[in-house]
Amino acid sequence: MRRLILAAAVIAPMLGHAARAEDTVKIGYIDPLSGGGASVGEGGLKTFQYLADELNAKGGILGRKVEIVPFDNKTNPQEALVQAQKAIDAGVRYITQGNGSSVGLALEDFVTKYNTRNPGKEVLYFNYAAVDPAMTNEKCSYWHFRWDASSDIKMEALTNYIKDVASIKKVYLINQDYSFGQSVRSDARKMLTAKRPDVQIVGDELHPLLKVTDFSPYIAKIKASGADSVITGNWGQDIALLLKAAADAGLKVNWYTYYAGGAGGPTAIKQTGLDHQVFQLTEGFANSGHQPAMDYEKAFRAKVNMSLWYPRAVNEMRMFKAAAEKANSVEPVKVAAALEDLKFEVLDGGTGFMRKDDHQFFQPIYISSFGKLAANEPFDEENTGWGWHLVSKVDTPQAMVTTTCKMTRP
Amino acid sequence: MLELIVISTLNGVLFGMLLFLLSSGLTVIFSMMGVLNFAHASFYMLGAFFGFQLTKWIGFWPAFVLAPLLVGAIGMAVERYGLRNTHKHGHVAELLLTFGLAFAIEEIVAMIWGRSPVDYRVPALLDFPAFTIFSTNYPAYKIFMLAVSVVIFVALLLVLRRTRVGLIVQAALTHPHMVGHLGHNVGRVFMVVFGVGSALAGLAGVIAGPALVTQSDMAAALGPILFVVIVFGGLGSLPGAFVASLVIGLVQTFAVALNGSLASVFGPLDSAGGPSALSDIWNVTIAQVAPIIPYLLLVIILIVRPMGLMGTRES
């Protein structure tokens, strides 16, 4: 009798657990929650939890509750795989990750292999920020979907903008010396030469990742080159210190950046006093002028106490819901099929679509500059009193690139 | 060419002095106590965050005085209640203690101030270009940093070499029992030395915080280069650390200015082979590897002259 009670005590919670698991859609959030990347990772987690709460308040996905389960990968590919396995063991069928293309590539490969070995238990990988073009080209996978614009898409959008700005004549490239920085650099060279052959590339610098404390010597070189614009993919302290050194030396150029808006970036720009000289490329931003997005931003800030860094995360979760409803199932295989070529009205206005060939989402890209706010721009960043201001909107057709992806379909 | 040389020299000296500012406290602690303090960069970070917080409450200049004192007090507490107990177990135990302390401090800072960078600004009084040369501005704040470094160097040298205090401190390292018998409290000497070393780190933090990025991983980012400076200069040698800081600052700055690569010296490789590991190495410019050069110097100096540039002992 005692044994029976014991067995029941052990089994009953498991049954209960299984029953509950049926009602929830678990999304494993695998990103850094400790170490150097933690500030960004924590911001992402809060964003996804907000999105899940929002979906749940409206009845979840097909009546099921959405739950975000955080896993700390310490921005380390090896650790990310361990965490992915842990997530799967905990009943997760959807994982989402964004920080670090090296981590992203490892996860993409892991998910592909896992799904081959475990038919019927497929796992999907939703990528909201890893932008290495390889992930939707030579290394592409059917089980991976990317909502962020890859680095070559952003460069395509940026160069389509630069094409029409005659005042840009001499461009300097400075990037971090690793796969992402190198792809920014080679894309910039290739696309600028094709679209604006008259633009001179007066410098092309690679510096070690997150190792430079003093950028003054680099600024001296930029100054000596006579550049009027700098293109950089730098992020984190590499963009903050670069801009600080530029402001200290009194360098007057325009900065076209990928990540000046990242955590700490706005604070650094405000410190430099570079008013509307720093530009960034995003799929949306607080002062975009699109009313639903601005209302959303307001509600988000009021509750989470940070700006919405990832409008693409909103697109990701909403499209997930749309695809599940289209397939009338939360089974990953069916959701994946429904996501292909799905058209979607993005948060900041305009239509995007998930291309079937490579599972890359194409969407309008905004170029905005950071500085003093106009009357109709209510949102500042990091309490600086400065915010992003619309410079140009590059529509979806102008923000598309070709792919070499040949994916294996199930 | 002249412009490049002048600007690079200036930048190199300014950066070198920043490095000295950061490593002076580490050298003091090491040369006077023989403790290789792994938590030094963490004290530097504490200085920056205390500076930031006090600046918000009472202004930069009071913070400039108070924050190093606070960090010094914490340093003294660490020595009195931590290091003194581990001392009898040898240097490895001390090293491990400071190693663990570094992690603890980082987590505490992250808990209090969060992991994002804080908005710590240059004081308005020093927020103007001091002079302009070849149309490049040199901010007054950088000149201030340089001046503070030089003052610290001269003051430390005078105290250690020319005063009775310096004599006692130096004697306490090599002959603690004799110094004790002469009526000096050796324990307290060590405590004060550690406190001063930590206070110097704190001072470096208060000053470097606005110039660099003040965030919870700043200690980890800067720690390694400080060890390069003191090992290169000679473990425990103050003038050595001064010279090493300047050399590293200048070498790194000039390296960035150079675009030469193996390819530009020996001509490009046969491109028919396509990109390979060899062609990658062949085309790397000196500028690209500039920030790594100090570590290369470290390895070379350890092989050629293990006691460092001006060191007097090997460990």
Automatic annotation (TrEMBL), chain A:
Cell membrane keyword on record: no
Top-level taxonomy: Bacteria, Pseudomonadati, Pseudomonadota, Alphaproteobacteria, Hyphomicrobiales
Tree of life domain: Bacteria
Ranges of residues in domain Leucine-binding protein: 24-368
Name recorded for this polypeptide: Branched-chain amino acid ABC transporter substrate-binding protein
Keyword set, alphabetical order: Amino-acid transport, Signal, Transport
Species: Bradyrhizobium diversitatis
Translocase in keyword set: no
InterPro entries in alphabetical order: BCAA_transport, Leu-bd, Leu_Ile_Val-bd, Peripla_BP_I
Family: Belongs to the leucine-binding protein family.
Ranges in coiled-coil conformation: none
One Pfam family recorded for the sequence: Peripla_BP_6
